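If you are new to this repository, start here. Below is one unmodified record pulled from the training split, so you can see the exact layout before writing a loader.
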Amino acid sequence: MEYNLPVRMMGRDHPAVHGFESRQRADERGVLYNDHLIEAWPRQTAEVLRNSLAMINPGVTEIYVHPVVDGRELRAYDQHYHAIRRHDMDCLLDQGLKTLISQSNIKLINYKAIRDLQRNNMI
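And here is the target side for that same chain:
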């Protein structure tokens, strides 16, 4: 609230993981957040996205991935899951996924758009 920033929330199908109803508290304070969260970890992102995007619900859905360029730095800090992280990058650059998003009438935004909406009190 001090910086007037939106927050990331787990999907609506997750219980109150913080020990309190975080969505209700955010609503009471005028803090915006995503409605849904698609998280593939540690499954293959391409498969999860293809299945999830076909059934996406209205609202703001965050796609939570760990894209990274393969190299020594990646393999130094993640010796077990570097292939999944590399796959995330490949997936996000895949033209087939971009086409699927376009055909699904999904509008891509980032948290800056949500922040601007919150700061302009347009909720």
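Two things worth knowing about this chain: Residues 40 and 48 are 6 Å apart (CA to CA). Helices lie at 22-29, 45-53, 72-77, 82-93, 95-103, 111-119.
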